[in-house]
Amino acid sequence: MRTLPVLVYDGDCAFCTSCVRFAERRIGPRCEATPWQFADLAALGTDERRASHEVLWITPPGRVHGGARAVAKLLLSAGGGWAVLGAALTLPPVSWAARGVYRLVADNRQRMPGGTPACAVPPARRPPAA
Most CB atoms within 10 A, among 44, 49, 66, 88? Predict the structure, then answer.
């Protein structure tokens, strides 16, 4: 059984990879970070469609959090001031705004600093809106 949460991200996306490296250096989350392309997604309780659509935070017992909620969990795990910011991201109306901003950034990650055309998620691989 895993003892640390797993942060699953798109390793083919330069923007996503840069964000994870920044978090590892500056924020210090308590987790294992792995690109979904190298992860055993079924063992983690998720699939390629979801992992290619959003960053995932998977707890040791197997609960999967995606998108802005995954970012909040990452910040909470770091403690200190980061945890305060993470907690704020879980509370309405901040959580509503965070979901919208996350989706806007994720859907346009190829346009973000460091992003490339390879970062774009083809519409056919995006899950339907919840």
Answer: 66
Give the burial class of 125: count Cβ atoms within 10 A of its Cβ; 0-12 exposed, 13-18 middle, 19 or more buried: exposed
The 10s digit of each residue's pLDDT in 23-60 is 999 999 999 999 999 999 999 999 999 999 999 999 99
Using the structure block, give the residue that is written with the tokens 């959580």: 95
Q: Are 89 and 72 in contact (CB under 8 A)?
A: yes
Determine contact, residues 119/13, Cβ cutoff 8 Å.
yes
| Full 3-state SS string of the chain | CCCCCEEEECCCCHHHHHHHHHHHHHHCCCCEEEEHHHCCHHHHCCCHHHHCCCCEEECCCCCEEECHHHHHHHHHHHCHHHHHHHHHCCCCCHHHHHHHHHHHHHHCHHHCCCCCHHHCCCHHHCCCCC
Task: List the chain domain ranges.
Answer: 6-116
The encoded tokens of residue 15 equal 């923007």
Question: What's the alpha-carbon Rg for the chain, to the nearest Å?
Answer: 14
